[in-house]
Amino acid sequence: MKTRRDFLKKTGTFAAGSILLPSFAKTTKKVDNIGIQLYSVRKEMLADAKGTLQQLAALGVKQIESAGSEKGYYYGLQPKEMKNICFGLGMTLSSGHIHLDDKWPQTLEDAVASGQQYLICSSMPTQGQTVDNYKKAAAAFNKAGEDSKKLNIKFGYHNHDFEFEKENGQVLYDVLLDNTDPNLVNMEMDLGWVIATGNNPLDYFKKHPGRFPLWHLKDMDLQKKHSVEFGKGALPILEILQHSEQSGMKYFYVEQEEYAHSAMESLKEDMDYLAKLKL
Asked: Which of 165, 168, 141 has its CA nearest to residue 155?
């Protein structure tokens, strides 16, 4: 089955005690404001965009990140129409995956109409796994960041696995980080692809605090190199979420590329898993 990378390339009992003995109370909180990357329901969105958004809202989703499709970035809907549908369902269309191409001015215009806070480039604008090419990409990202900032939109880049390849000992993803302006280019970290390359997201959070305001929360089977439902793979989900502040995370989007059964069944399993976590 093709992955997204291929597609682009792709009770009250203790309450009283806590009042009497606050020094012994340990506060916990649940995971909230959960987002979904719509590539997770790509076929469903193409077949019935509004109905699919209704199903996501019923699962408890609060944040929506759009993606490219055969019907465009808004699945055949107008940007403002999609914004209003999400709003009416108690959700926010906060981010969208786009390409840097000759349609960039229209992409920006549509993003303003959609109310999206973030525009995330989901593919490299230049070709070649070399340091020089990644420096060229970084320059293009800085320029796109300037264009976006003028419209009060935040620009960013979403990684896959290939960015962690090396040339002459240099990790190409690090080249992007070192050559992009943090004030103009945000990083959306796909946590699943990071661990699939043998890297640790926490190392990047520590080295570049605040650089990763968006995440793709995706568990991974490291042998098959594809996504699995939460708790079935190698991603230490709870530990990662406990480092959200260091990361600078504002929103995270669940991305389920492959499914044990159906897209909605897998997403419900993911949502149920997150509901049981205590941070």
From this structure: 141
Which tokens is 184 given?
A: 């103009």
Question: Rounded to an integer, what distance in angstroms lies between the CA atom of residue 193 and that of residue 17?
Answer: 44
Q: What is the pTM of this model?
A: 0.90
CA distances from 187 to 39, 145, 158, 160 (A): 18, 12, 6, 12
Q: Which of 113, 115, 125, 170 minimizes the C-alpha distance to 8?
A: 125
Contact 225, 262 (CB under 8 A): no
> Could you report the per-residue pLDDT of 2-56, keeping only the tens digit for each?
555 554 554 343 333 333 444 445 568 899 999 999 999 999 999 999 999 999 9
Q: Would 150 be classed as within a structural domain?
A: yes
Cα–Cα dist 221/235, whole Å: 9
Closest CA to 215 of 135, 173, 159: 159
> Do the domain assignments include residue 26?
no
Q: What SS3 state is found at 74?
A: coil
Q: Which two tokens stand for residue 148?
A: 């976006």
Is residue 247 assigned to a domain?
yes
Q: What is the pLDDT of residues 107-158, one digit of tens each?
A: 999 999 999 999 999 999 989 999 999 999 999 999 999 999 999 999 999 9
Report yes or no on 1 lying in a domain: no
* 144 closest CA partner among 163, 157, 160: 157
